Structures are given as structure tokens and as C-alpha cells.
Amino acid sequence: MTDYDLAIIGWGAAGFAAAIKASELTSGQMHIALIGKGPLGGTCVNVGCVPSKLMIEASKTYHEANHKKYDGISGGASLDFGKFMEYLNKFVAEERKGKYADVIENFKNVELIEGEAKFTGEDTVDVNGRSIKATNFIIATGSKTFVPEISGLDDYYTSDNIWNARELPKKIAIFGSGEVAMEFAYALSNFGSEVHVFNRHNRVLKGFDDDITRELMKAMKENGVSFHLGVNYHEIKTVDGKKDILTWTGTFTGFDAILISTGRMPNIASLNLHAACISTENGIITDKHLRTTNKRVYAAGDCVRQPLQLETLAGKEGVIAVENILGGEKTINLNEVPWVVFTEPNVASVGKTEKELITAKKTFTVRTVNIGNVVKANILHSSNGVAKILAGQDGKILGVQVIAPYAAEFITEAVQLIKHGLTYEDLIDTVHVFPTVAESIKIAGQAFIRDVSKMSCCMD
């Protein structure tokens, strides 16, 4: 049996962040086991954030080159999808090496152990027949794709394996309507696929208010994406190499491929958690300090029972878990965590939504401005989008949602407004750069005090 001060199960974002932070806080004196299986870096760098955002940016470049945007400028681009996907996978390998394999070499107190961990007691796991005992554990095993039971579904893509594709599907069905589904729909339609989005519920992006999702659907329809919402698909039939989708209301035919993107589920089934007295319910149950029902064991990231599954949140929670193991009392306020859908326009949110405030019976005021009020958006020829602010009776900003170009780059301003309890008057009082799309948040703040349609540029 090998003893460690800390054993971390999972070597994705949360696990790596935890291992590095523990090493920093103990000046490299903590003896750490970092246990994982599959490529180093977990979901984000290998099959999540990194390849998907590269695909999105590349597809946008291709699409814009073939669609005239400004008078007097014309272009054109060709696409070798197989060659691009080979480049994408090479890029991912380089990022995995540079950000994970090479990085961990700097921490000699961290031992990488490849294999599947199973708890055999409250302070012990088995990995490939090797018994590992630790003073503390952090579970950071992330999540995996949820695949619904559909008769005849036996050949499909997910966000894990689509990176193996070398031919662009001419016609593809995407099952699901969350952020991953929307991003793939956007990218593949840019490349020229005929994209159909199917969802059993009658909406997309359940974490956003309806006015925001309407703007996104409008933009994506203009990009050629078809939506089939409230459609209960139940069977797939393959006819002459093409896939037909049978629903209770009709049959959709002739698809070259199907992409399953119906959500993710905590990756915890193989951990034998009951042996360590760790409780679960749609994920590992933790207290506000990320401690599980076993006082030796903490959990971080997508394996935790929580509403958000984000790489940045996982990394933050990995750090917090370590700080608390070492005597801290750190917590994280999920109301201050931003999340983004990297379509074009971007969709970004932080804080409360209208639906949440109404459900909580909170008194609030809302202001929404069309992106057409923002000069930089007009320069970009971006007509779909809004900036929306929710404020309490005292003027404090409770939530911000934006659908606009570059929203991912400036939603952090809204995080600071909420985190520090600032008001729309504080927002208005802050000088912004002109012309930027980030101005949209300030203009939404100004909508609380005036009719912004009667306001000149740079009006304070």
C-alpha cells in the first residue's frame, strides 16, 4: 500500500488545478497522486472547449470568406474538411502537451498514476490492483455524454468522437438544444452542412430567458439551421445508407449523420463511492466547502451535483477544495459564474434570469436594448442581438444576459457588477471605450434613465 497526503481522482481541469495549487501552497512538500485515465487534460482540451472553439472560429472564417459583408470587398474560400480535421487534432495534441504534460513535469511531488480508481474504504482506492491510501481525496472525474435510448440508434457522433470525422456530413441531425448542440449546429452550418436541430422540449438553451433564445434562433435560421422543437423522436432507421428519424408527428429522412448532444452526466458510476460512504444524487453531494459526506473526501467540477458544468468552474473548485483541505473555509457563489455559448453572435449570461426572479417572487426592473443601438455592432453588420439587465428596487444589478458579437470577451464586466453589488448608476458612471460591442452593457444601464433611441454616441 502506498500512502499520499492527497490523492486526486481525475486529471482534467479540476484535477490539474488542484494538484498545482496544492503544490504551490505547500512549496512542493505535499505528496500527491494524480490518478486518471484517457488523455491528460480531460474533456476540455481534448474533446471540449479547445477543439470546439477552434472548429467554430475556422468555420466562421470560411463562411465569412464566402459571404459578402462589405461593398467593394469580395473573396472566396475552398474547404478540405479532412485536412482541416487533421490540423485540428494536431493542434489539440500540441495544447495537451504544452498545457498539461509539460506543465506537470514541473511538479516533482505529483505522481501520475494511469488507471481507474475504485474506493475500497473511506481512505483507500484501488488502481489496477494497486492499493493507494491518502489522508485526503479530491474526486474530479468530470462528466460524460448522456445518450438517450432510441430504437435503431447504433451509429452516431457525440462531442467525444466527432473529431474523428474526415468527411463533412451533407445533412446532419443534432439531438439536443443546449450550448454544445448550438455550437455544433453553428459551426457545421458555416461549413455548409444542412443542419437540423431536434429537441423533445419546445425551446433551446434552458438557462436563458426566451427573448434571448429567440434572437439566437433567428440568427441561426439565417445561417441555414432548421429547428424541430417539441418533437418526440423515438426510432432511427437506416435506408440505403441514409438515416431516417421517426417521430410521433412524422418522419424526417435522408440524414448522413446524427450527432447526440442531449446533455452530460457525472462520470462517477465506476468509483464504488458507497465503499467510502459518499452520497450521490445526480452527482456527488457536497457541502458549500466542497466536502462530501466523507470528511476526508472533497469533490470538484462536473462530477458534483450542481447546475453548471464549466471548465472554468471546475478549475476554480479544484483550487477551493485544496484550500479547504489545508484549513480554509472558501466557498463559491454560482450566481457570480458567467457562462457563454460560442455561436455567432455569442450568448452570455451571469446572475439571475427573469424566470428565476419571478419564481423567487423578487421585485425587479428589466431593461433590454437592441444591438442596433450599438455602433460597433452596426459596423460589424450584426443585426441580431440584445443586451439585457435586471435590477432590484435599490438599483443593484441582479443579472445580465447578452447576445452579441464578442459577448464572451466582455461578460466579465457584468460579473464584477454583480459580485460587488453595484448599481446601474455605477455602470453608467464608468467610462467605456467607443466603439465597442461591450458598450451594449452600458447602454442597457442607461436605458434605466432615458430613452436610448434618442441618445447620441458617447452620451453619459
Q: Would you give an account of this structure?
A:
By secondary structure, the chain is α/β, with parallel strands linked by helices. The protein has helices at residues 13-25, 42-47, 49-65, 81-104, 179-191, 210-222, 311-325, 354-359, 375-379, 407-419, 424-428, 439-446, and strands at residues 2-9, 32-36, 110-114, 117-121, 124-127, 130-139, 143-145, 171-175, 194-199, 226-229, 233-239, 242-247, 250-255, 257-260, 264-266, 297-299, 339-341, 346-351, 364-370, 386-392, 397-404. The radius of gyration is 24 Å and the shape is globular. The mean pLDDT is 96.
TL;DR?
The chain has 460 residues and is an alpha/beta fold. It has 12 helices and 21 strands. The strands form 5 sheets. Strands 1, 2, 3, 4, 5, 6 and 16 form a 7-stranded mixed β-sheet that branches. It has a 5-stranded antiparallel β-sheet with strand order 17-18-21-20-19, with helices on both faces.
Topology record:
Elements lengths: L1 E8 L3 H13 L6 E5 L5 H6 L1 H17 L15 H24 L5 E5 L2 E5 L2 E4 L2 E10 L3 E3 L25 E5 L3 H13 L2 E6 L10 H13 L3 E4 L3 E7 L2 E6 L2 E6 L1 E4 L3 E3 L30 E3 L11 H15 L13 E3 L4 E6 L2 H6 L4 E7 L4 H5 L6 E7 L4 E8 L2 H13 L4 H5 L10 H8 L14
Parallel strand pairs: 1-2, 1-6, 2-3, 6-16, 8-9, 8-14, 9-10
Antiparallel strand pairs: 4-5, 5-6, 7-15, 11-12, 12-13, 17-18, 18-21, 19-20, 20-21
